[in-house]
Amino acid sequence: MSISTATSGPTDRRAATLVMACLGVFIAYLPITTVAASLPAIQAALSSSTAQLSWVQDAFVLPMAALILTAGVFGDVHGRKKVFQAGLAFCAIGAAVALCAQSVQVLWIGQAVSGLGAAALLPTTLALISHAVPDFRERGKFIGLWATSLMASLAVGSLIAGVILDHAAWRWIYLLPIPVSLIALALSAPLLSDSRAPHGRRLDWPGQITAALAITAAVYGVIEGGAGSFTNAKVLVALATSAISAVAFVLAERRSDSPMLDLRLFRSPAFTATTLVAMITFLGLIGFFFVLSLYFGMVQQLDTLQAGFRLLMVTLAALVVGAPVGRLMHRVSARVLITGGLLVVAASLLSLTALDATTPFASVAWRLALLGLGMGTVMTPMTATAVASVPYQLAGMAAAGNNAFRQVGGALGPAVLGALLTTRALHTLPEHLADAGLTGATQQRIVSAADADGLGAVAQLNLGADTSRALDALGSAFLDGLHLCLIVAAVLTLIAALCSVILLRRPRETKSTVVRPKASAAATSAKDANGADHGRSVSPAETVTASDGA
Fold first, then answer.
1. 283-301 exposure pattern, b = at least 16 Cβ within 10 A, e = fewer
2. Among 192, 261, 389, 457, which one is most buried in terms of CB atoms within 10 A?
3. Can you give the pTM of this predicted structure?
């Protein structure tokens, strides 16, 4: 079935569509590793606590998670090209705000605007590919290139940050996205064809409000609970609000005539599996980048470029393996690829628990490369299976839903692992200080500073001859927290692998019943005039064929 509007271009524009989609996802994900690699510099320049640093990343990821489904609906209603272009504009504006930020609060605003732009880009890039390549088998190759562009963005981000911070202040990491976004915006006008959903979808405001409230309240509760106490009244209120909003979201979507996320998608075991895998793996991946960048800066005392080269091991390995995995999808089942990749990720995370303050580059590099190989094996089949596991007319919603849950995991990653890191490090810090011979008032001063202003605040204290011993004790406490984060991330990855084993099945054709609106007059006229299926609407409860898992 070809889904198009009068403005849709011919099929020979598929290459241009692919290029623009890959450029769009590259721009959307660029801030993740550029900011992650720059966190120590941002913390030092803005005197930020660990909780405030968590919000620097989450201010970007939260809008992506909360608004990605609504952006998909906007594309269905108003045209995906328009939403794609709006996303590029927001990315440029957000980067400009962050570039001029003089406080961490203004930086949050810039990150949030950029996150809004990324929320618009992610579902539209996949929807544009799905529109240009209706055949799900051929579409897998295109999605493989899309996933490769995503990983390429993560790969070069840390290096870009390192080069910039070697010669300029942290704020200049936000310069590059501005011209790149504006150039892409200019190129999209002649190169992209517009498309939209064939039926009259409309915005689902109850679903949007409850989803945004549930995600934001959950992340706020986790960050503030980790920075203070989970028994604090405002933390309990936030977590309760998140739970109530999540229930309200489910009820709103079940009753909506035009749901933002059709819950019937979860009738597909393959879609459910890939959604859970996406959320859990990104929780671990983005959270891992967050704590690892702090390890390189606070424990190993590396500059941003040196840290960037180490982070590059993850994304470069994923980038290398991405294209071959895309070709393997026609020979090896998604169940084997995804499960195998997750097991490799879990093994690499557990191997990283051997890190200490003096671990050399070579010892870190192979572990990070192994992690990247596992992630690269998971990414392409995970995304392609989510789209192919539902009927064609729901492919756009499936892509947006998979991306939304992926970003929920990405938003919770720094919050959850940052809270674990801080809690564990603060718990063991007094013991390490005592082992270093720092007791009494000096110990109390150090612990109070770390508790009030974050672990990084210890480096700002004037302790005289005790400074070196205090920093060594802080590094040991940080390593305790890091090792706990790695173990938790590995356990989560094994849970994701279990979901893959249980829910993913071998590819087969199944019958999926989907209720659709009756044919519109315009669609009927189009069919009568052209004698073709373009613009064809389907009668209610028509049975369509969909892949149950790749």
1. bbbbbbbbbbbbbbbbbbe
2. 389
3. 0.73
C-alpha count within 13 angstroms, C-beta hemisphere, residue 363: 10
Q: Which residues contact 36 (CB under 8 A, 6 or more apart)?
A: 57, 157, 158, 289, 290, 293, 311
What is the number of alpha carbons within 13 Å of residue 368 lying toward its C-beta?
23
Amino acid at residue number 71: A
Q: Which residue has the tokens 């499960």?
A: 339
pLDDT one-digit tens code per residue, 262-311:
888 888 888 888 888 888 888 887 788 778 888 888 888 888 788 878 87
Structure tokens, 208: 């949007």
For tokens 């770390």, what's the residue? 450
Across 166-212, the runs of DSSP E, i.e. the strands, are none
- Residues found in the chain: 550
The structure tokens listed for 469 are 């011993």
Could you say which residues of the chain have pLDDT below 70? Answer: 1-12, 135-137, 140, 197-201, 226-227, 392-393, 395-396, 505-550
pLDDT tens track for 385-439? 877 777 766 766 777 788 788 878 877 888 788 888 888 988 899 999 898 888 8
Phi/psi at 545 (5° precision): -95, 135
CA–CA gap between residue 2 and residue 549 (Å, rounded): 22
- 390 neighbors 398 (Cβ within 8 angstroms): yes
**What are all long-range contacts of 452-455, with beta carbons under 8 Å and residues at least 24 apart?**
453/47, 453/49, 454/43, 454/48, 454/49, 454/50, 454/51, 454/52, 454/53, 454/422, 455/50, 455/294, 455/298, 455/422, 455/425, 455/426
Q: Between vectors from CA 312 to CA 311 and to CA 318, what angle results, nearest 5°?
A: 110
d(CA 157, CA 98): 16
Q: What is the DSSP letter of 260?
A: S
DSSP H or E run through 543: strand 543-547
